[in-house]
Every structure is written in structure tokens, then in C-alpha cells.
Amino acid sequence: MPQAAPIAAVAARLRSALPTGAVIDDPTQLATYDCDGLLHYRVSPALVVLAKSADDVQLAVRACVEHDVPFVARGSGTGLSGGALPHADGVLIVMSGFREIRAVSPRDQRAVVDPGVINLAVSQRTRPDGYYFAPDPSSQQICTIGGNVAENSGGAHCLKYGFTATHVLSAEVVTPDGERTMLGTTAPDAPGYDVLGAFVGSEGTLGIATEVTVRLLRNPQSVQTFLAGFADCNAAGAAVSAIIGAGIVPAAIEMMDALAIEAAEAAVSCNYPPGAGGVLVVELDGPEHEVEAELAAAEHHCREAGAFEIRVAANDTERQAIWRGRKSAFAAVGRISPDYIVQDGVIPRTALPEVLRQMGELAAERGVRVANVFHAGDGNLHPLVLFDEQVPGQGDAAEDASGAILDLCLAHGGSITGEHGVGSDKAKHMPKMFTEDDLDTMQLVRCAFDPQGISNPGKVFPTPRLCGEVPGKRKAAHPAQQAGLGEVF
Amino acid sequence: MPQAAPIAAVAARLRSALPTGAVIDDPTQLATYDCDGLLHYRVSPALVVLAKSADDVQLAVRACVEHDVPFVARGSGTGLSGGALPHADGVLIVMSGFREIRAVSPRDQRAVVDPGVINLAVSQRTRPDGYYFAPDPSSQQICTIGGNVAENSGGAHCLKYGFTATHVLSAEVVTPDGERTMLGTTAPDAPGYDVLGAFVGSEGTLGIATEVTVRLLRNPQSVQTFLAGFADCNAAGAAVSAIIGAGIVPAAIEMMDALAIEAAEAAVSCNYPPGAGGVLVVELDGPEHEVEAELAAAEHHCREAGAFEIRVAANDTERQAIWRGRKSAFAAVGRISPDYIVQDGVIPRTALPEVLRQMGELAAERGVRVANVFHAGDGNLHPLVLFDEQVPGQGDAAEDASGAILDLCLAHGGSITGEHGVGSDKAKHMPKMFTEDDLDTMQLVRCAFDPQGISNPGKVFPTPRLCGEVPGKRKAAHPAQQAGLGEVF
Known about the structure:
2 copies of one chain form a homodimer. By secondary structure, chain A is an alpha+beta fold. Helices cover 35% and strands 20% of the residues of chain A. The first copy, chain A, has helices spanning 4-17, 27-31, 54-67, 119-126, 145-151, 158-161, 195-199, 233-245, 258-268, 288-304, 316-336, 352-365, 394-411, 430-433, 436-449; strands at 23-24, 47-50, 71-74, 91-94, 101-105, 110-113, 131-132, 168-174, 180-184, 208-215, 217-218, 222-230, 252-257, 278-286, 309-312, 339-342, 345-346, 369-375, 380-387. In chain A, the strands form 4 sheets. In chain A, strands 12, 13, 14, 15, 16, 17, 18 and 19 form an 8-stranded antiparallel sheet that branches. At the A-B interface, strand 9, helix 7, helix 10 and helix 15 of A face strand 9, helix 7, helix 10 and helix 15 of B. Chains A, B: Keywords: FAD, Flavoprotein, Oxidoreductase. Chains A, B: Its cofactor is FAD.
């Protein structure tokens, strides 16, 4: 691993080229960058660079390449898997000041933005022209497009519109060897390898996006939102299955269980149906006639599944009221529990009732409670494991329950993360989901782009390896990989 | 390049392990494999292997790796870009006998199939259960799923449902070094690199799929199809823009111009609206209420744009009659022209009128005619350049017009291929669409998977390179690529 000398050399190189204040090595200031949204991992970087342009990013990466120093890019630091956790001996490249919307072309349905542009800022800029950027992570008021690209971010409306990967047409990237290249193209149906597709969601391990061309969608002609109260989550889940099964693809179907409803009520008095053990928030959008027809059908399916109250928003104010409870739910959990862990897993929608039942059991066995708020349409669960750090053993019990929930998702053919990413937090779980062979194949790509292993090392992949060792069993056939290249990462 | 000895060694190895008749080296038999659907490139392979299993494929690839012999996989040979054109010194691995549907799981909306399974066979098998496989290339009665994966095949209904990449969940692959690995996962929203996304559409250059798990869609509750006749293609194009602009996403919108209509009438008497200079075939599918509302809106937009006749199919027989003209159009062109070239390009939908005008001009300048049949909704043109080989100079003029059409697509921000792939035919056009830097980045992936350059060499990429040279300017930073590895390809 790099020692003080390489970092000092990198610092000197960057100071000579960048404005005063853009390079930070004061320990107190460095400590303010010691985590992202996943607060319980903390590492201060050795150096921080405040990048304002692609040139700045390239300069920083090239200095790191030359001195074999690891680097990590960070947007707003809202990530929930420690993907932007700094490296103790490395450079943290802070992208949040690199944020101009470069061009908006409504006719071509695209915008060209800097990576530090705030997600919501894109739609705010384009909505008057009749367009918006679809991915809407719950942090969209503060998270950056560059971070969305790194994590392939989702959101409530990704059921209908897809994750970030669907909405990025091309990206200029500084690769881990310090080159600048364009991935993807704005031409429709381009040939060649879809390298952009592999880059989106690579969590900073294949380089840093320095310009992103995003797809804009037309504002829907009509939006209808309703809240449906059910006796329990099983009934609500049956409604979800019936709606999707009927071929309706709502813009969003969100579910909350009794504990999540209780938390939301305590925080924002959202006035959800009294006595509900499960609520659905269903949003439909599209051409007016289509939305009206779908609304009638979705209401019907909810009633058939046992909804005892359905409340359709009559206007935008009522729509926002319905969403307020859902959107506040995470923070609201603080009202009913001193501490909590937000988990993120995915299951096939059909496994919902069984998984919810078993999740309740495993939580009870460990003496903790689980509140559920989730994107029901695509089976993306966000269980909140509630505990009290002051009670001896509860912290460990909650950690244990949180891990067991992922195992439960996997046992039902699901995934260890829906939209929060692997980052630092879940790298250890990757071998539960992928064979060594699968991971070796991903390492082929990693080593092709980052033979030194300096681009966000330690994230995503579980086992530090020499690129020369990857993939071990392929050595005979891959002379390129016998040379013992690169650093451990 | 490999000489006779390596091929003889490969043949001996394969004969020792495979049943009689599975290894072919008789020149007359080899000649029957000398082209795919693009008839004007012809190369006989040095050896043919009829593979029936993943073991057979792996055996063949391993033998090729050991003796440094190129290999090419071939399904039904329906490709239109010479992607399955054999290598004169190489092995052609014929996959069409490797064709069992291994498992169908309607509840999970997926099926596991061998690569040699015929596209249409999947839907024939699953339709009674209420499901189908969406990608529908016009060759779907004969083309294979493995070929669809290699080419990321599209079809008339890909406007709404997306190309093959959207419908493949995972694939077992024999990589160019002879290993077997799984790309993708059936778990929703899986983390890690989307290597499967890069593999789909890689046209055989990253390995051979030996098992494919495809996504099944539910049969739509309702389908409505109509034919609209317009004075010319500009009016028809305006209707397309109005329909899409209104937020309606039809299952298909196909357009034919006067010459294509004439050809179809001559061949199958499809009784299209007399006097039409442009027709649209519009198909809407989904929940019944939604389709009814969309049908009314789409008809309205067509009339507003000047449709003088609209014929809605009252039943399945009438629907098939409407499609018959469209589907026969390519072959039908033989009725009005002794020879023709099928081109495949993409333009932004908004550029349609201008591109059609200029295409007419460039054809007239060269003394040839162009008939247009295309997927209007996504701007995927299939111009048919008509000529008579017997007339001196017409063959060259047609080739020249065909190339000029691609340049026209590129000048309007389009692509050199929509769904036929790059293959042998369009590799030379890749530098018009991608910078050397873009292509270098793709080569990073290529060399990671295929350092010997033996997997379908000569396809997709324009310039033969040593993997040790790729990417040239990155040498300093990528010690892995300095070793002078691999063969020219």
C-alpha cells in the first residue's frame, strides 16, 4: 500500500495545478469526508481534491496512477452502502462542485450534465419544457447524477421507467489509467459492445464519469395517485400481484407495513387509514384515457384483495399528502426507535407473503422489530431493523437480523441489493450470490480497465486479488494475466 | 494464421471425442456453410463441428485454444451482416442441432433454452400457458435464440418491448479461452458488472452462449391492428410523430413507401389502400380498456395527419392479412427488381422526412431505386436498393447508394445498423461512428476475454490488432498489454 511519500507527491502535483483550497490535507477538514450515508463505516482520506472539471478529475487520476495511489470519487455522499467510503492512504475526489447543466435538448429528449449536478435539478430545469429525468432515488433533492450512474440508482418510479442504466445515453469517463473516453453514443441502437452498460452500476471501480448525457422523458399527460388500506401486508401483496398480473404497470406501487405506518403517523400525521396493517401507494401515469382506465382497474383489484379504504388524490396537494407519509417513513422510524438499520434486498414479487412472514419470525427470534417500507411492484424491500444501542446485545442482534434478511432474500431467488449498491457494506455477501467463476469473469473486466487496482479499491468485490491472479484457473489460457501486474486491491 | 497442421490436430481431437458425422471436412459439405443470410460474402470453413451440447462446444473451443485456431459459431445462418461468415482457416461450430427447451416456468416468467432453439418455438411452447418471447425478428420462424443473443436481434415489436438484451436474464457462455461461465443472474436487480449486457450483441467475439434463460411476457389481453393509407411517407411520418408524441407506445408501427407497397401487392395481393404513397401498420396491445382508448387516439392522429383510409382488423384473419403485405415486402421486392440490397440503418424519428427526401435524391443520382420498409416508431430504416446486375455498372451504383444511405443516417445522428449487426459487412463503417478511442475501450473488453483473438475474428472491429497493441496510447499505464500477446485478428 502507498506510504506517505506517494501521497505527498500527489498533493504537490495537484497543488501546483489547482487553485488554492482545492487540495485539502488538514486532518480536521479531512475528517468531514470520513463516511457517506452509511454512517457506521468511517475512514478519513489521506487527501481531498475538490474537482470542478473533467481536467481536474483527469489530473487527479493521472497523479494517482503515476504514484500508485488509490482514489475514490464522491458526489453528495448520500450512498447507503459505503461506496464512497474513502481509502485511508488515498485521494478522495469530491465531485459535488462540478455541477453545471451543459445542454438541454427537449427535441432530442436529452440533457448533457456534469456529474455533480443534483438529480432533481435536471427535472427542475426541463419540466417547463415538458420533460423530466425519471430515476428518483429518495435522496433526489441532494444526490448527484454521477453518484446515480455509479450506483445505477433506482427509486419509487423505477418499476415503470427502469433504473439509471435505462436513462443514460452516453458518458465521458476518466478511466483508471487516466485516459478520457466516451462510453455509449446518443445514436439509437448503436452497435459494438455495451461498455456503458457495464460501467453504470460499477460503483466507481471502472473509473469516474465526467459528463453524462441523460435521457429525458415527457411529463405524463395525466397522473393519478391513490392510497389503499388493507388489514395486513398479505392482502396488500395480493393486490399488487393482481394489478401487475392484469398487465397494468403503475408508475409506482409502494407498500408500508403497520410499524412503518405507525412511524409515519408519529412523524408527519399523514392520516393513513386507521387500523390498516398494510397500505399501498399506487401511482399511475400516462395519457389521460389510459390512466383513467387503469385507475378503475387498479382500484377494483385492491377492493377484490380486501382494501377497506381507497383514497384517490383529487389534486396535487392531496397527492403530496399521500406521498408525504411514504417519503418520510425512513426518517420517521427515529420516532419509534432510537436506532435502526436500513436493509435493501430484492425478492421475486411472488415470494412476498412468505418472505414477510419469515422476516417477522427471524426478527422476533432475535428480539428486534422490523418495519417494512418497500417498492412492492418490483419486490425491492427496504426492511428497517429497529433496535436500541443502549440495550446490551441489541446492536449485534440487529446486525445479525439484517444479515439474515439478505440470506432470506437469496433463499427465495432474490438479490443482496436492489438499489443501494454493494459498496463496502455488502462485498462480503457477493459470494453468496455469485460463484467464484462469476466473480472471476467480472474481474476480467475490472483488470482490463484498472490493472493497478487503484479505482475505489475494496468495494464491490469480496477478495483482494492481484490482477495477475485473475482469474486463477484461467492462467494457462490467458498469458496476459500471468505477468503479476498491479497492486493488491 | 494457423496452417493445415493445427486444423488437422483440432479435427483429430474432435473426431476422437464426438460421434461419427459430427466433424465435417469434406470440401463439398463445407461449401454448404460458406455464407449466412448475407449471400455475397462466401468463405468455406476449414472444419465444421455439429455441436449438440455445451460439452461439445467447450471441447471444440478448447481444441481451438490449444492449437490457436479461429472459430465461428453459427445458428440457422439467417444473419444479414455476415456475422456467421466462416473463417477460411478456422472451425465453424454449428449450433442448430443443440436445441432443446430445457425448462419453462410461467410463474417466474422465464424459460431456459439451448442456443439452437428456434425463436418462434419458445412462444409456441409457452403461449398456451399465457406467455410469449417478445423479440420477433422477421426470420423468427427459423433463426435461433443463440443467434438472437449474439446479434441483439430486434423486430417489429421491439419498439414497445425492447431488443433481445431486454429479454435475456442470464446465459451460460463458453468464453474464448474455453472456460464455461454464467453471465447475469435470474435474481432481480443483481449487483456487480453487467457483463451479460456487453455479451449480448457482441456478435460472437466474446464467446458462445450454451444456455440462455429468457424472460417471458404475458400474452396481451387485447390486440388491435390497423392499416392507414396516406398520400405519401411524409404524412405517414407525421402520424407516427403525433402518436408517439401523445405518449402512446404501440407494439409496432411499420411504414412502407409506394415502391414497397407496389412490390407487396404484386406478390401477395394484400389489397392495401389504392393510391397510397405510404401506409402504416399500427398494432396496439395491452389491457383491453387501454388498447381501446389508444386505438381511438391513434386513429385520430392518423386522420389528422391526412390518412384517407383506415382499416381496423376485426379479427385475427384480418390482422394476418394486414401483416401479410408487410412481412412479405422483402421477398416481394424480387417481383419488381431482379436484384436488391437490404440496408439497415437508424435515424432519430424526427429526421424521417428529411432523410427520406435525401435518400430519394441520392438514389436518383446513381440511377437506382430505393423501396422503404421500416420500423417507423424507432427510426429503424430498411431501405431496399433495387438494381439489375445485368445492367453494366448498376451493381456498383447500388453498392455505392447503399453506403451513402449509411452516411446519411450518421449525418443525422443515427447508427450504421439497427438490428442486423456489424458482422463482416459493416466493420469498415465502425470508425465513422466511433472514435479510435471508443474502439480502443471496446478492445479492452475484447482482449480481456479473447487475448488470442480467435473468437469470430475479423467481425465487428475494423482494424486487425495485436491485443498487445490495444489500446496503443495506453501502453504506459497498462503493463498487462505490453506483453505482445495473442494473434493478429
